[in-house]
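Onboarding guide, step 5: your first structure request.
Type a short instruction followed by the sequence, for example:

Predict the 3D structure of this protein.
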Amino acid sequence: MKLVVGISGATGGVLGVRLLECLKEKEVETHVVITKTAEYILRVEHGIGREEVAKLSSRLYGIDDFTAPIASGSFKWDGMVIIPCSMKTLAGVAHGYSDNLLLRAADVTLKEGRKLVLVVREAPLNIIHLRNMLTAAEAGAVILPPTLAFYHKPRTVQDLIDFAVGKVMDVLGLEHGLYRRWG
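The system replies with structure tokens like these:
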């Protein structure tokens, strides 16, 4: 499997890092784009720099590198996840505003009919956020907010992170043991 992973500038960049760790364990080829704001937030919230993200990635691209293979539909990949997906990035995806490589790759993912998962991060949501989510979903994106659940009896923040990442892995059809399933 070959996936594009985007990390945009919303709190929760650790979700993207954890997804990359899990994908690396599964030997999934990952093509990663991280926004400048996401880099800043990862450093502030978790002490994680671009170098650590690069080590978890098969390939890491600059946000303005429109020569990257993921800028073209002729480069084949199986799907894309933007985790976390800021409201700014959601708006760009929903309205085809591809002014950086992350948004261009999302646009290509949708136009080529590939799976696009948006792990949207904001609360509370206003009507513009909701409309943008609806527009993105109508275009084919899967909207997957990292919501809390308790049936798996989480004991740590890491358990909650793993639950959210496990839901993404479920949507991608990848087996995992990140949380105990219901029943």
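Each response can be followed by summary notes, for example: The helical segments are 13-25, 36-46, 50-56, 87-94, 101-111, 127-138, 157-172.
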